[in-house]
Amino acid sequence: MTVSVAACTAIVCAVLAGCSASSGPPQTAASEGSLTAKQKRTALRLAQGEVRRLARSVTNISATIGPGNLPLEQSNSGHACASGTVTHIRIIGTFNAAVAPPPSAPGAPPEDSTITAEEIVADAKTGDICLIQVRVGPVAPEPGATILLQK
User: Fold this and answer.
1) Can you give the residue range of the structural domain that contains 47?
2) What does the alpha-carbon distance between residue 22 and residue 3 come to, in Å, rounded to a whole number?
3) Total of domains in the chain
4) Strand, helix or coil at 137?
5) Domain for residue 29, yes or no?
6) Which of 40, 112, 114, 145 has the highest local Cβ count within 10 Å?
């Protein structure tokens, strides 16, 4: 399940700096193969910044690159992805935050709102992060993704 930063609790919104509603992944294409050495370094640098902010432990960092744009209106970081190429980074692990669970039916147990992954979309040419989202529930690296860290 992908949860936009808009669905998070007030403390997570403050930490993630900016909220946007989204019912799914950004409108960008899937991977077009392996990342270059420079793209790997950039993806790892961006992931490490987020890991320092929110992660307690990380089991996997993966990245894909492909065509796409993300206009400023859809960004929750204040940056647009306008170069025509975006990097998708997925950080899987345990995080120091949780999202507010959706309301459950009376008598039903609440859904687990533990964050299991953070997803970053960044402009591949500038390295600017243009979207940050979190996921709850089971998650795995994207098929075909370049694995940057595996524990």
Assistant:
1) 2-23+34-99+113-150
2) 7
3) 1
4) coil
5) no
6) 145
